[in-house]
Amino acid sequence: MSTPAMQRTVFVVSDSTGITAATFSNSVLSQFDQVEFDTVRIPYLDSIEKAEEAVARINRCAADQNAPPLVFSTLVDPAITETLRGANCIFFDLFGTFVQNIEEALGVKSSHSVGRSHMGGLSKQYNARIEAINFTLAHDDGQYVEGLKEADVILIGVSRCGKTPTSLYLAMQYAVKAANYPLIPEDFDRGALPATLLPYRKKLFGLSIQPSRLAEVRNERRPNSQYASIKQCRHEVAAAERLMRMENIPWLSTTTKSIEEISTKVMTEIGLERRQLY
Amino acid sequence: MSTPAMQRTVFVVSDSTGITAATFSNSVLSQFDQVEFDTVRIPYLDSIEKAEEAVARINRCAADQNAPPLVFSTLVDPAITETLRGANCIFFDLFGTFVQNIEEALGVKSSHSVGRSHMGGLSKQYNARIEAINFTLAHDDGQYVEGLKEADVILIGVSRCGKTPTSLYLAMQYAVKAANYPLIPEDFDRGALPATLLPYRKKLFGLSIQPSRLAEVRNERRPNSQYASIKQCRHEVAAAERLMRMENIPWLSTTTKSIEEISTKVMTEIGLERRQLY
């Protein structure tokens, strides 16, 4: 990693949460590692007054930095978009750029309605996510084993290898009922999966982690314990990976992956990505 | 809502998780409510072989449906992108469309490196998110009050109004240490905030919910209980809203909002969106 040679301010503007524009700009700007980007999000920009305020902020920034900021927009309203375009900035109209092409391709007109991109509070998808989060919280760390039969996936691995955040992400993002179950020294001594899990083999997905990283994480929780010692971590990780290999359970190491990456792999490998016709 | 008049398959292709492309396509396609879109995500598309497989899938779909599918791509590799473009599809090159403009605006070249958009497993941001999730889990529902002083925000509201999912989303997405604390009938009888919360007034944000919706949610958990009765729900919600108004605590109703929308409002209102220079 080299030190960034330049800095630039990025405004993310949206008539709704701005999550789409923020995700997109973050993603595309990661291609420019010479530049350090400082992002300002302006959500719920839904009136000309608010647009004028935003223009003033953008212009102030341009003047201070002597460089026009980048603006990523998912605004839908044409008049608000035009107002923003008037600012001293480099404007990227994410929807506008593609909506016309999509209209032509589909032969239909877009609805041009604002704030539609996220499901409303009462939708089926919303309820499914809340239900999955509640399920995941109730089935964290091997609690309430009777419920495992309802799980879509059961993550297994040694204590502190990343099961809980991954389970919660799967629930939150994909409405997947993700339980998790720890592999503990007794399982390694026995050299077998916990009996509780045997009926659910096909739902199991393993997470592992580098022993040195595990020792770090465990030390934060219980400093200088046997549990956090590098020796113990090495032993547990090796034993867990041996067990998962022996039992033919798909698994991956979380050490250098983001929660999003781990979750995507889990979805793909365990066939949760939904039955795909194509 | 009218019944969609047509259906169309959408492929989301990426050399990484595909989350950016999926978020974007979902968002822009929500502008076309006459069409029902069926999305197929192909993540980790990082070789010409995989690209050729994807082309075959897309072509099969086009032939079956007698219409070219839409393809949203955040592929970075030019050769892989070219392969995909060869499919019978309408191709949207999300990065390509903007990268050149950004290069010109900034006067620097992009790195054209794949799979960069999400932080690696060991990054500071990743650790901050995991720490925030652990904090939120430890401070769910008024547990461990000593830790509240470290919280970035404390969500309050009646039981089952949406505090837990919102707290988790804030932690997961923004690395915000979000605690939550229930408002219970005793608080309403006393007509005052729980004493525990008084030192943290500035961190409080209230969530409310329509009584009928609350009764529904509570009934799932404890069917036909006093707790879930519409009368009890009406009483608690009215009392909680009165208390929050009296105490001048910012709050909103979760009833018709997505977790993303609620979280964005919390971030903005409580000033967590970070100190913004502009």
TrEMBL record, chains A, B:
Catalyzed reactions per annotation: [pyruvate, water dikinase] + ADP = [pyruvate, water dikinase]-phosphate + AMP + H(+); [pyruvate, water dikinase]-phosphate + phosphate + H(+) = [pyruvate, water dikinase] + diphosphate
Superkingdom, taxonomy of origin: Bacteria
Gene Ontology MF terms in the entry: transferase activity
Binding site for ADP: 157-164
EC number, as in UniProt: 2.7.11.33, 2.7.4.28
Alphabetical list of Pfam families matching this protein: Kinase-PPPase
Protein name: Putative phosphoenolpyruvate synthase regulatory protein
